Amino acid sequence: MGSTFGVGRQAPTFTLPATDGGTVSLSDYRGDWLPVLVFFVADDPRTLARLTAFSAAAEALWGLRGQLVGVAVAEPEDLRRVEESSGGLSFPLLSDADGRVSRSYSAFGGPGSEATPLAVVVDRSGKIVWSGRDDQATPMAVIAAFRDVVR
Known about the structure:
- By secondary structure, this protein is α/β, with parallel strands linked by helices.
- It has helices at 47-62, 76-86, 100-104, 139-150, and strands at residues 15-17, 23-25, 34-40, 66-72, 93-95, 118-122, 128-133.
- β6 (118-122) and β7 form a beta hairpin.
């Protein structure tokens, strides 16, 4: 499967199950909110701190019409445990159990490869306007990039 990921390209579309039992589609945000997709590794020991930091930063994004959306290659029940361990998050966690969506965004290379944190900002038309990996995928970096994008 070839990747269609990259700044300036259309964001790969998806509909994934959320921890609340519903589903979330990228198209749910088209035209109004700018989604900030945060790809993470559910069983990484650093994940809880990373997601909690993003949850605390969510209000700054909301003021700019941004909506965080967490995506992980994990089953919904595993993500519910992550959510419960965090004490609750201010954004939805989505289950990409087969890894199809994560691969389409190049969040990892495939079976056996290491996943790394990735954040992606998608504009109102569905185009990728920013992405950051590893140290660039922090809440502060995402907020700074988001402010530049919405100017």
